[in-house]
Design brief:
The chain has five helices and no strands. It starts with a helix and ends in a 13-residue tail after the last helix. With 140 residues, the protein is mainly alpha-helical.
């Protein structure tokens, strides 16, 4: 799982670096000469590195690692809940207020996950073989 994560983020990083070197040259011909990197002090760059390493790589890494212990359907259902759970956390922790379409979207996501899980459980029960019941007792 960590190898797949390394290749995924490595390729994304290379493409972003190429994009960031090309964009200022393109924008420079149109808008003048914008700077290549934002002007941040050392603590600002440190926070950016921590944000990249912690939530981003850690989150994707733990998701990939969970595939070793959980079925893919369960891992994907949990990942599907991410927008709704993030909105719920921002409501309680940050005092965020939401519009009716945002609440409706979150409720639709949650209902979809619940419905999928209920259907999966029914399918699992249906596929389990019936227990064999013997009419006679035969001691060994």
């Amino acid at each position: 799982s960590w190898t797949a994560l390394f290749y995924t983020f490595g390729m994304a990083s290379l493409l972003l670096v190429a994009y960031n070197f090309m964009l200022p040259k393109l924008a420079g011909t149109i808008l003048g000469s914008p700077s290549l990197l934002p002007s941040l002090d050392a603590s600002g760059w440190g926070f950016l590195v921590l944000l990249a390493a912690g939530p981003t790589i850690g989150g994707f890494g733990l998701y990939n690692l969970s595939m070793n212990f959980l079925p893919a359907t369960i891992s994907n259902l949990i990942a599907t809940l991410e927008p709704s759970l993030t909105a719920l956390q921002s409501y309680f922790l940050l005092g965020e207020r939401f519009t009716l379409p945002q609440v409706t979207g979150s409720l639709l996501i949650i209902c979809g996950v619940v419905i999928l899980r209920v259907v999966e459980r029914r399918e699992e029960r249906r596929q389990q073989p019936a227990p064999v019941v013997s009419d006679s007792f035969q001691p060994e």
